[in-house]
Amino acid sequence: MLASQHRFHGLNSLSYAYRHGQTVRGAQLSLKYALNQRRQTYRVAVVVSRKVDKSAVVRNRIRRRIYEVVRLHDTGIKVPYDLIFTVFHAQFKDLELPKLERIVLEQLTRAGAYDPKNQRAHAIVKTEE
């Protein structure tokens, strides 16, 4: 799960990014981004419309999967960006993780908010049985 400091909070928190941001649009996913100098960290929101799927369970699954990709690659995200992903296609609920990562990271790179050179690997801890 993405840390609380990297999420938007409050009723009007998305308004700055929507008013001052620029958009990078793909076939299934759009990214609205804005450089926010008043923050020390980046913030991420994922918007999934009911047009994508009527089921809240499916929409929340899509949202959680995109948050997880961002969390895994957060060291490569330049700060302080406000990032809003908007999903247009229900394909994200069944998409394999490598392809989902490629789509999300491509949008972040096109926006100039992601630098793969700053990315460090997350440690995966294995427990001995």
The mean pLDDT is: 86
- What class do helices, strands and sheet pairing give? alpha+beta
Give the strand order of the largest sheet, numbering strands 1, 2, ... along the chain: 1-2-4-3
Assess the beta-strand content as a share of residues.
15-25%
Evaluate the radius of gyration. Answer: 15 Å
Order of helix and strand elements from N to C terminus: HEEEHEH
CATH domain fold name = Ribosomal Protein S5, domain 2
Named at the architecture level, the CATH assignment is 2-Layer Sandwich
Q: Which residue ranges are poorly predicted, with pLDDT under 50 across at least 5 consecutive positions?
A: 123-127
Helix content: 25-40%
Largest sheet: 4 strands, mixed
- How many H/I helices? 3
Number of domains: 1
* Global geometry: globular
Task: Give a count of the beta strands, DSSP E runs of length 2 or more.
Answer: 4
Distance between the termini: 26 Å
CATH class: Alpha Beta
